[in-house]
Amino acid sequence: MRAKDSGVVCGLEVVKRVFNLAAPGSKVKALVKDGSRIGKGAVLMKVEGPASILTAERTALNFLQHMSGVATRAALFSSVIKNGRTRIYDTRKTLPGLRAVEKYASACGGAVNHRMGLYDMAMIKDNHVALAGGSPAKLAGRIAAMRKAKPGLKIEIEAQSLAQVKAFLPLGADVLMLDNMDFAVMKKAIALIRAHKGKKPETEISGGVDLAKAARYSRLGADRISVGSITSGAKPLDISFEVKTK
Hints:
By secondary structure, this protein is of the alpha/beta class. The protein folds into 2 domains: about 1-80 and about 235-240, Alpha-Beta Complex (Aldehyde Oxidoreductase, domain 3), CATH 3.90.1170; about 110-225, TIM Barrel (Alpha-Beta Barrel), CATH 3.20.20.70. The chain contains 9 helices and 12 strands. Strands 6-11-10-9-8-7 form a 6-stranded parallel beta sheet. A two-stranded antiparallel sheet has the order 1-12. The longest helix has 27 residues, at about 55-80. The protein starts with a strand and ends in a 6-residue tail after the last strand.
């Protein structure tokens, strides 16, 4: 297996498993490690076995190309962050059935995994706020109930305006998301959060973040910038499988 483009490789153990299942008796040797930066022409893996290795070829390449594409995109976004505080986070915008491998690939590229599902972190989004009538008192009750039911579970709340940031700050969430705000408003919101006398939540910037925005937003010094396109917009890394007979 040879890279036809440069990037970050990921998915080698998944590829080994594919060959073990679809081409029993084949011998698979990885020549690089997941998370390695590779150049065009790099040989990533060698496979020896009978003609049945072609049964596994396409599935193996699909995993390797896709996971390497995700890792490469995560590395690209991480590379534009120029301060020691802000980290790039992925999201739950993953392909059905592939969340585990996509999240793994994202981490290989240098991003941080956000929650895996609805069980390992609670997020109060705009629709939840709407269902609560936008009432901070009702949201405070929901948060208290979650704290009691799931002690230690992190809770995040989404704010879409400076007014909501002011209203949600006293609720004691662990993370406060600034969603689809313009730069000037986010700057004021982060200053407001940092000046808060009570519990200071982590700050997360979210909403249509492309590479240029990530670089600009990193100047604000938020704790997190979440980027859905790390997984949903990743282009497969071009990798070929070349067969030679003995």
